[in-house]
Write a structure and sequence with these properties.
heterodimer; A: 318 residues; Rossmann fold; Alpha-Beta Plaits; six-stranded mixed beta sheet; four-stranded antiparallel beta sheet; 13 helices; elongated; B: 259 residues; 12 helices; globular
Chain lengths: 318, 259
């Protein structure tokens, strides 16, 4: 019974539960000189999610990504990717990873295609057909034979994603991937990442300081500030049901409604009540039973930004 | 190690896709063609091998060019930021750096091959005799052609040392211009340094890199320019420097964080 319902659920929860985390940070510390950049980071990234790594500029996001990709050594602790320690068996761990670290810098004097060939040659498992497929997928067919020096920032970003997914990695790491993308590009990237997790089961680890964007893109986020992990939370999880939300009821007879409910306030000519998910249904039923016309119900989801500001005390966000 | 030569191939592509490389090759080709022609007009009595021995005076061209490329293959990746995407592949840093080194040595050999074989061809067409009547160099090494091939081999060793030095500077400083400048400065200051710390006067002088470079010195005299070293001694000293340069390069490249 349980297995059936799990299968039927096309929710992230079903996939989250399956198996080991793709990335496991344990007590990761990075010190440069006397400065501690990352302080005791312990975190599991579940498989099949778009996992956001959120924090203000300078909080250690890129440093963490550099450590995950072996560009920087860990001062202590370990990062295990798909079961392989980045310290002990770097080559095995990195085989499962595709990444963009900071800006996707390519060889500007080569064509986009030659750039992809460079990375394809470094692996045994990337065929010419796969390159063509990725190029098409990223919408680069028309310009792929042109030199990268003629590309716009958005096209370079796409080429960056292309080189990262060429070998169908289990883990895709993207550092501030929306930098330089126009709204259209951001939307496409978002849809694309969703598609990637859904179709290929890829786990995406994406860093950003743009809160609103992460909210749209991610299943879960870890919030980091000044090198410390502050919080990990699911964004579209069940916890929503328990959260008390401000809900706007657009009703015909305002005073009667307030009298009936014995609470709430009027804001901008509309009734605002603080309640949870169940409460919304209950209030609606009571209003309708009392003959009050309900024209609309709008739960005011607290944005991640609000939560983030709340958590970090509003300071330190750039 | 499924295909190390794919890495070398990648590096070759990166070298040969640059316009700069083709300008270097063009200059070298021009020198290789024009110089024997010039010798033909200014010298009455010259043979093929004396022309070639004079050509070797231009050994600094392939040296400077391959030093520039050596510095760029490492430092250029850092300044462009492409090193990040290169290092996040299932290859150890040692192998990636080794592929770069192999590509540079291949490039160096290519430059020499172009210079030597083109000028040899042009010289063979222009000069009737194998050697001129008043060439004395040949007596030092059996024949003039032997003298040339030995000199060439020694020049290749010199160039390899400078290229390895530039490669090391590039890995340490990660700056293209600094690495090239340092190597070129040392290339031209070497003789000045040995002048100051004269190996014939100071014992320490004979262990200097620059006292042992230019192995051609042993073609003229068994005890070299300073009269205190031998070919075997110099080869041993150069080998030690070479190993130290490479060990330092690989150690630094492997250990340092990439920011």
């Amino acid at each position: 019974m349980e297995t059936i319902s799990e299968k039927m659920l096309d929710s992230k929860e079903g996939r989250q539960g399956s198996g080991e985390p793709v990335v496991r940070f344990s007590n990761v510390v990075k010190r440069i000189g006397r400065k501690t950049i990352i302080e005791n980071l312990t975190l599991d990234v579940p498989a099949g999610q778009v996992f956001g790594f959120l924090g203000p500029n300078g909080s250690g996001k890129t440093t963490t990504i550099r450590m995950m990709t072996g560009l920087m050594k860990l001062s202590s602790g370990d990062i295990v990717i798909a079961g392989h320690s980045i310290k002990q068996s770097f080559e095995k761990a990195i085989t499962e990873v595709g990444a963009i670290v900071e800006n996707p810098e390519m060889y500007s004097y080569l064509s986009g295609y030659s750039n992809l060939l460079q990375y394809a040659r470094m692996r045994a498992d990337v065929t010419k057909e796969r390159i063509d497929e990725v190029v098409k997928f990223m919408g680069l067919e028309k310009r792929i034979r042109d030199k990268v020096s003629t590309y716009s920032l958005g096209m370079r970003q796409r080429l960056g994603v292309a080189q990262a997914i060429l070998h169908r990695p289990k883990l895709l790491i993207l550092d501030e991937p929306t930098n330089g993308l126009d709204p259209q590009g951001i939307r496409e990237l978002r849809d694309y990442l969703r598609e990637l997790t859904r179709r290929e089961g890829t786990t995406v680890f994406v860093s950003s300081h743009l809160l609103s964007e992460m909210e749209l893109m991610c299943d879960s986020v870890a919030i980091i500030q000044a090198g410390k992990l502050i919080d990990v939370r699911q964004l579209h999880g069940e916890s929503d049901a328990e959260t008390m939300l401000e809900t706007i009821f657009d009703v015909g007879q305002m005073e009667e409604a307030i009298a009936l409910l014995g609470g709430g306030e009027i804001r901008d000519g509309r009734l605002v009540v603080r309640t949870n998910r169940e409460g919304i249904a209950e209030i609606n039923a009571r209003l309708v039973q009392a003959g009050i016309a309900v024209y609309g119900i709008h739960p005011q989801k607290r944005s991640l930004e609000d939560q983030f500001l709340e958590m970090t005390g509003g300071g330190g966000i750039v | 190690m499924f295909n190390f030569f794919a890495l070398v191939h990648n590096e070759n592509i990166k070298i040969h896709a640059r316009v700069r490389t083709w300008i270097m090759l063009g200059i070298l080709l021009l020198i290789a063609v024009l110089m024997p022609v010039l010798f033909h007009f200014i010298s009455e009595d010259m043979g093929v091998w004396s022309s070639m021995n004079t050509m070797l005076q231009f050994w600094f061209l392939p040296t400077v060019f391959s030093v520039a490329v050596a510095a760029d293959t490492v430092a250029g990746e850092f300044s462009r930021g492409t090193i990040k995407l290169l290092l996040i592949r299932p290859w150890s840093r040692i192998k990636i750096l080794l592929s770069k080194y192999v590509a540079i040595v291949l490039f160096m050999l290519t430059l020499y091959a172009i210079m030597i074989f083109v000028s040899l061809g042009v010289s063979s067409i222009l000069f009737e005799n194998q050697s001129g009547s008043n060439d004395i160099l040949g007596q030092l090494a059996g024949s003039l052609s032997d003298f040339f091939w030995m000199s060439l081999l020694y020049r290749l060793i010199d160039t390899l040392m400078y290229v390895t030095m530039a490669f090391m500077f590039a890995a340490i400083f990660r700056s293209n211009s600094l690495s090239v400048a340092l190597t070129i400065v040392l290339l031209f200051m070497g003789s000045l340094i040995t002048l100051l710390i004269d190996p014939s006067k100071y014992e320490i002088g004979r262990y200097l890199l620059f006292a042992n470079l230019n192995l051609g010195q042993y073609l003229g005299s068994e005890t070299g320019t300073y009269g205190v070293t031998t070919l075997g001694f110099s080869l041993a000293v150069l080998a030690v420097y070479y190993m130290v340069f490479l060990a330092l390069t690989f150690w630094v490249f492997r250990k340092r964080d990439v920011a």
